[in-house]
Each structure stands twice: as structure tokens, then as C-alpha cells.
Amino acid sequence: MKVTALNTRSLSIPKKIKNTYHCILLTKTQAGLKNLYKLISFSYLDYYRKKPRIPKSVLDEHRDGLIIGSACEAGELFHAVLEGRPDSEIEEIVKMAVNQKPFFGRRGGITFSGGEPTMQAKDLLPLFAKLKAEGINICIDTNGGAWNSDIEELLRQTDLVLLDCKQFNDDRHKALTGRSNEQTLKTAKWLEDNGKPFWLRYVLVPGISDFEEDIRALGEHFKNFKMLQRVEVLPYHTLGIHKYESMGQEYQLKDTKLNTPEQLDRALSLFNEYFDCAVMN
């Protein structure tokens, strides 16, 4: 859902509106659930334009019982950092995160995903410092394919890393992504050597990343990593096709079929031979 800065309930909304952001809404009470249903209805019936949207003013009216997060790289917090907004504005956004802290739980916090958040490592470091000062845990979702001193410091400030491995076989990884997975594996080794907990996330694409020999090679490589807390096997899906369409690019996996239940069961059984923390997400 996109949140805009509109302060009106008028149906005559301009086609192009600046300052729209993604947000995530979670319910914590029955009142929050009712407000969520109302906001969904408003976003489709009153403010829909290609995608469901909701003005901030309407969101504020119906925020009781809701937890409002900044979502992905299209969220307000992430954009505030990238656009170099004044510290006072970033502080206000951090304050919103602090207000949600009672609902994070002892191990919860804020996740930075993307895109690739480490590409903005230098800009994110001050924000990470503010969040850590407030006692908020930080998680990063990254491919680990880039490295410099800013990224290293960013990972030092991170409590949990979600490390995406597209393919363990380097030749197949190059064919799939256009680059080697060498740095991804080096990042995993750095996390292990520096005592940084991480989850390994592996997308199971039929005919591309579901080969038994590749899964076994990955298992042999990572089976003794002590900082590896969870291995997530992610079924292939086509939810990202619209992103390619919006950029005028061809989706090269358009003819790839979804996993069958038998393929998923077989893959998970292979991962389970090497890890006691493997799950199908």
C-alpha cells in the first residue's frame, strides 16, 4: 500500500503525486483489524490509481490498533536517508520506530531490504547509529555481493543478516545473474568469522537452482557454520514480473514453471540432510 501526503478526502487526486511511499500495516488489536479493513476499502474505493493508495491524513485518523512500518527501500525512512533530508526529519521518523518498540519483542526490530541496501551503506551508517542508540535491533536483507569499508562497518552494526544465495554453482550463478557468487560466499565467511548471526535464503527455481549436486555442494560448504541460524528455501514465484514491465524490460524467466509439491519436498529433504534449521518459507 502506498501512503501519500495528501490532506484531503477528495476523489479528484492528481495523476502524479510526489512523496509517495510504501508502508506495511500490522494489527495488534481487534480495533486495529477493523481499521485495517477500513483503510483497505478507502485505498481501493476512494484513492485507487493503478495501485491502492491512502493519504497520510486518513491513515492518521485510523491508526488506532495498528503498527505502521516503513516497509522496503520505497519506504519513507529509507528515502529520507537517500535524499539527505535534515536530521530533524530523520529523527522524527526514528521516533516513530521507537514508538513501535514495545511491539517488536525482545528480538524484533527494523529490517532494511531492497533493492540492495548495502549500496547506500555510507548514508545508512548515521541512521544505524541512531537506531542502535535507541536499543532497536537491525536486520539487513542482502545478496552480499558488494564489499567496501562502509559495508563492512554497516554489517558490524547489524544484528542479523538475511543472506540471499541465488545459486551455489558459480557458473550457473553467472548465467543467472551475470556475475560471480564469490563475494557472496566471502561475505558469509566474514559473518561467520566475526560472530554475526545470519540466515541463508535460497530461491528454488526449477531447472536453474534446483539441481541436487548444487544443493549438496551448498550443504557441504555451510554445514559447519556456527553463525548460520536458519536456512530458508523459497519457492519460485512470478510476483516480480510487473517490476520488469514497469521498466520496459523483458522478464527472462517468463517460461519457467512454478515448483511442484514433489520438487519442494525433495529439495527440503536434501537441505535437511545438512541442516537442522532448514525450512520451506
Question: Which features characterize this protein?
Answer:
single chain, 281 residues, alpha/beta, 11 strands, 41% helix, globular, disordered N terminus
Fold topology:
Blueprint: E1 2-4, E2 21-22, E3 24-27, H1 30-45, E4 53-55, H2 56-61, E5 66-69, H3 76-82, H4 87-99, H5 101-104, E6 109-112, H6 121-133, E7 137-142, H7 149-156, E8 160-165, H8 170-177, H9 182-193, E9 198-204, H10 212-222, E10 228-235, H11 241-246, H12 261-272, E11 278-280
Parallel strand pairs: 1-4, 6-7, 7-8, 8-9, 9-10, 10-11
Antiparallel strand pairs: 1-2, 3-5
Helix pairs in contact: 3-4, 6-7
Give a structural overview.
The chain is α/β, with parallel strands linked by helices and 281 residues long. The chain is built from 12 helices and 11 strands. Helix 7 (149-156) links the parallel strand 7 (137-142) and strand 8 (160-165). The two termini are 23 Å apart.
Alpha plus pi helix count:
12
Question: Secondary-structure element sequence?
Answer: EEEHEHEHHHEHEHEHHEHEHHE
Poorly predicted regions: 1-13
Radius of gyration: 21 Å
* Beta strand %: 15-25%
Could you give the count of β-strands? Answer: 11
Structural class: alpha/beta
- Report the sheet with the most strands, covering strand number, pairing sense and barrel closure: 6 strands, parallel
Helix content: 40-55%
Whole-number average pLDDT? 83
What gap, in angstroms, lies between the N and C termini? 23 Å
Shape, principal axes of CA atoms: globular
Please list the strands of the largest sheet in the order they lie side by side: 6-7-8-9-10-11
